[in-house]
Amino acid sequence: MRYSLSAPNPVARLIHVEAFLNDIQTPTVELQLPSWRPGRYELQNFARNIQRFEIFDEHGQRLPFRKLTKDRWLVQTQGVTNLIARYTYYANVINAGSSYVDERLLYVNPVNLCLYAEGRLREECTLELNVDQGWPVACGLTKTDDRTLWAADYYELVDSPLIASPDLQHHAFDVGSMTTHVWLQGNIRPDWQRIETDFRRFTEAQLQVFGEFPENDYHYLILVLPTPYYHGVEHRNSTALVLGPDDDTVELYTDLLGVSSHELFHAWNIIRIRPTELLPYDFTRENYFSTCFVAEGITTYYGDLMLRRSGVFDDAAYRKELHVLLKRHFENNGRAFQSLLESSWDLWLDGYDKGVPDRKVSVYHKGAIVAMILDLHLRRKFDHARTLDDVMRRLWERFGKPFVGYTPDDYRAVCEEVADESLDWYFDYCISGNMPLEDLLNDYLAFVGFHMTYDPTDTVGNPTVLLHDLDNPAALIERARWLNTPFVAVDLPVSV
């Protein structure tokens, strides 16, 4: 299909969409707008943002249609070979998965507003942007000219957000055979040399895990708001990031590093190393899968770990992030009823809401903690000769690179192959069970010189978590090997 986007009155926050479908050979056509977007596994009903909707033939005559569902239309083509769907989309929200327009910004996630014709998702797509000539365009898609983007099929199109603005700032650099593009929109003056240095470091660290990058280039599309915000969404060769406030503080830059490293790891883990239930995406309904703890938990673990391994974070910065991770799990849902398998499945129910107390666990937080347990188990057993890196590399080589999708049994088999043993205890306790993790976690934390204390009811009745350093030089050597840092004897703090 071919799409044309314009915003003749941006104050109204309306994006005008024209969707052209050619070579129609059937008496009817079904047009579908996605009900959800990859990266957020819940129904989002983008069709509720459509203000006007009309369909015409190539001569401008209206074609009759009716709705089949909330976001699906049946069109009577009456023998015509081409049609044009014209509609307006209300774009008034900025987050990493939304669309927005004003006088100086066009920000689009095509999955929000580009419908498709059933049965024709594998056809080429073009996206034309009717914006001022002076506006640069940031996007991972191929540019056929300054205002036209090309996608091999609909799946690539809707996995490629874009920003167009006269205020867009850009910096590019090469890391090995890939080119990294950093696009920044907001009231901030970036230190490009610092950004390049740090981004290059954690990119190289991630390349060492997998051995290669899936694409030729990668684009960071960053929107910095004046208000507090933290959100990122992974895409095929790009990520959309929304951060704030734009006060240019250490915290803002730390947030940028953390979310950028996390989303880059997704370029392998979920974009290509994908559960078989998500191949291909079905945009009409929920796509249930039970391994989101792999997609999000392992990625959360590696996001910060890559920053420490690469030297972007020092020991104190990594320790702080580890402490935050432990607090988020144990203080919020450390006694929740559901297992990681159940909470992965139920993302489609309420995974992004607070929900009923003590019902579910976070696939991000508990998923990262059990990923760390597995990594430390492998390191302790094999004296760091085998690690979770080996699991991820084999998943990439067997499922991600050929892009065939993995099952829960596939993931378990790869873990047990690397461990050279049955991991019943791990999967029964950490993945499919809901037992408290404190004792098991502390066994592995002690290996790298940490200890966590968990008080389920402190003086005001709330659970609290503290992370302590153990005065154990041997364990500190193991920690240095884990984090790929030189061992230096230091005076240890009591706790954080």
Give an overview in words:
It is a single chain. The protein is globular. The protein folds into three domains: 2-164, Immunoglobulin-like; 168-247, Zincin-like, CATH 3.30.2010.30; 268-281 and 288-444, Neutral Protease Domain 2 (Neutral Protease, domain 2, Orthogonal Bundle). The chain has helices spanning 110-113, 154-157, 192-210, 250-266, 292-309, 315-333, 340-345, 347-350, 365-382, 388-400, 408-419, 424-431, 438-447, 473-483; strands spanning 2-6, 14-21, 28-32, 50-57, 65-69, 72-76, 83-90, 100-102, 105-108, 116-117, 125-130, 137-139, 142-145, 148-151, 162-164, 169-175, 178-185, 217-224, 229-234, 238-244, 450-455, 464-469. Residues 488-496 have low confidence and may be disordered. Helix 3 runs parallel beside helix 4 and helix 5 (292-309) crosses helix 9. The chain contains 14 helices and 22 strands. Strand 8 and strand 9 form a beta hairpin. A seven-stranded mixed β-sheet has the order 4-7-2-1-11-14-13.
